Amino acid sequence: MSATRRRFLVAGAGLGVALIVRPAAATPEELAAAIAAYTGGAKVSPGRVSLDIAKLVDNGNTVPVVVSVVSPMTPSDHVKAIAIFNERNPERDVARFALGPRAGRAKVETRIRLATSQKVTAVATMSDGSFWSDTVDVVVVLAACLEGDI
Amino acid sequence: MARAIVTVTQTAKRGDVIEIRTLIGHPMETGFRVTGEGARIPRDLIRKLTCRYNGDIVFGAEFFPAIAANPFVAFHTIATESGTLSLTWEGDNGFAQTETVAIRVT
């Protein structure tokens, strides 16, 4: 009996380790595929973009989001577009914004829906053709109205 | 006509970066929800928001079902000259609405 218990404890400990070891940065394929489709397969570097969203969301029906990008916003060097993607809503796209040098400041704010706890990614397209991104893990307490499997 | 609110400073100095805050009443029905009887509620979304400054497009947004009901968007532009900012929302079922606000640039 004690051997069974020991085995159980060992298995439990192993499970705990397995959960911790799982890489935190593992992006599920669908999200990665949606971003790749948007960028045309170009390299997306982390940085320059800051995605400001609450890490713990009470109500997934309206989640305030602020995306700001470090950019001088001059005609020669500006942000052309900002796109927001999610991991586990029924659709990967959230919103796309078109900006230009006349924006003055690369910062947009909106409110989104989140069906469940998931990753949210913002991707910025620069005038030089480079892509930058920021990803935030969000825990959602009350999900946006949704029926069936997520 | 949906109720729309556009908040922007009425006067600005030339070259100032001004914030434009927009909100419009709309259910943004995703098309993923079903009624109690199991019937799917048809999709009804606002798809696009375009901001024109004296006719020139300065900002555009594309919405998907993950945008919350009563879409709120805030963005910035440089105050270049006095005139009007016009915001146009377009969506499903022929939804189209335009709001204009005057801005005085000194």
What can you tell me about this protein's structure?
The complex is a heterodimer of chains A (150) and B (106). In chain A, a hairpin with a 6-residue loop joins β5 and β6. Chain A is of the alpha+beta class and 150 residues long. Chain A has one domain (26-142): Immunoglobulin-like, CATH 2.60.40. In chain A, strands 1, 3, 5, 6, 8 and 9 form a 6-stranded mixed beta sheet that branches. In chain A, strands 2-4-7 form a 3-stranded antiparallel beta sheet, with no helix packed on it. Chain A is globular and about 70 Å long. Chain A is built from 2 helices and 9 strands; from the N terminus they run ααβββββββββ. Chain B starts with a strand and ends with a strand. The mean pLDDT of chain B is 94. Chain B has a 5-stranded mixed beta sheet with strand order 2-8-7-4-5, with no helix packed on it. Chain B has a 3-stranded antiparallel beta sheet with strand order 1-3-6, with no helix packed on it. Chain B has 106 residues and is an all-beta fold. Chain B has strands at residues 4-7, 11-12, 17-24, 46-53, 56-63, 72-78, 83-91, 96-105. Chain B has a single domain, classed as Immunoglobulins (Immunoglobulin-like). Chain B is elongated and about 60 Å long. At the A-B interface, β6 and β7 of A face β3, β5 and β6 of B.
